[in-house]
Amino acid sequence: MIEENEIILFLLGVAVLFFLLKNYKQLKDLQHSKIFFTGFYLFLAGWVLTVLEGLFWANLLNLLEHLFYATSSILILFWSWRLFGRRGEQK
Amino acid sequence: MSVIGIIEVIGLFAILSAFFVFVFGWNKALKKDTKFFLVALFILIIFHNLSNALEWISITKTFDNYETYLEILIPVMYGLFFYTFLIKRHEAKRLKAEKELEKTFDGIVRVISDILAVRDAFTSEHQKRTTVLAVKIAEAMELSEEKIKGLEVASKIHDIGKVAIPAEILNKPTSLNEREYFHIMQHSIMGYQFLKDIDFPWPIAKIIYQHHERLDGSGYPQGLTEDEIILEAKILAVADVVEAMSSHRPYRPALGIEAAKYEITEKKGKCFDAQVVDACINILEAGFKFN
Q1: In chain B, which residues have their Cβ closer than 8 Å to the Cβ of A85?
Q2: Buried (b) or exposed (e) across B277-289, using 16+ Cβ within 10 A?
């Protein structure tokens, strides 16, 4: 059964994906964009694991899922710090 | 609290910190769309991490109704409005600072131009007329406002390096010998030297340095070719030649617009950028005249 939080997350996710595709080139041109994209992809991977954990290896995949979310946030923090914390410049 | 709960709290703390770093240290060079994307992404991850963390540290066992989500979303939306307010305030301040800076730059350019006018009124007039044509070419080529402004500023002072050339050479009524011509060739280097340390928001020194370069490498001072020459310098080169040929010089009478058109057409694609020449010819054929 689909829960409310999943609907909200799905809508936010679609909006974010739309913006990502629309601004892909600009984002790619940002400094340290690899860190940002790795963080973003880890976040998406966490979502995929949420589904997979329902199928097999529930405990392991659940732990991995949450590790991915946390690592994703840490990478985005690292990227934000390098780009905005040091008042970096765009290429 | 479980291990996963701790991991979620770390994730939440990290993404909140990232958001604060983003808000308080953001880069004004970021495009508007990119900013909105990042705001949406931060909201998504914060919301996601927050709901996960609350669930795993057992503050709220289950999120199974809309009200609970609204309780989380409403402060997030307030945060977004506050953030938008910050953006607007920041933008207003930035625009004000930019205007003031532009006024300062205009002042610097005017002073530089006036200095040259005192020493060499002839070159000063040449710069003014060249500027009018260069800007018209840039507009016809649909360059961005920023590039046109940079080209305009560079054109107004493109021969500033001539202040370093002896007046007897500048105003010599006969042809120049090799040594004198060498002196004249130094003016783009001198102009570059004068301006390279001024932090203009446009590549003024570079445009001036390159305005005598030619696509085939026959220009000076560096003998640059094709893409090594920036577009603004290519435009200035054409406008400079057309103005110079159309006007009187101490060592010869004016050759006229037709001769200038013939010269740039003849060297189109070899010395001068083809698109720039086409734009210039269109402007001249539409009846453009130097004042």
Answers
A1: 21, 25
A2: bbbbbebbeeeee
